[in-house]
Write a structure and sequence with these properties.
Blueprint (H helix, E strand, L loop, with lengths): L8 H7 L1 H17 L3 H22 L5
Helix pairs in contact: 2-3
């Protein structure tokens, strides 16, 4: 990022998306080990939504 462009939640989360997905999965693994499978599924669902949204954002426009 450059100094003249303000940072936004979207730009920061896109930059660190891999780290965020990793952290969500680690969180889900810990919850699963604690017997909180519903909570683990919830956090894995968030990870899937973020990954899918990122994939849709990156697809080239066909036409």
């Amino acid at each position: 990022m450059t100094d003249d462009v303000p940072e936004t939640v979207g730009s920061i989360s896109e930059l660190y998306l891999g780290n965020i997905l990793y952290a969500l999965e680690r969180c889900a693994l810990a919850m699963a080990e604690e017997g909180k499978s519903a909570d683990a599924q919830f956090y894995r669902g968030i990870g899937r939504l973020l990954a899918e949204a990122h994939g849709k954002h990156r697809k080239p426009v066909e036409g």
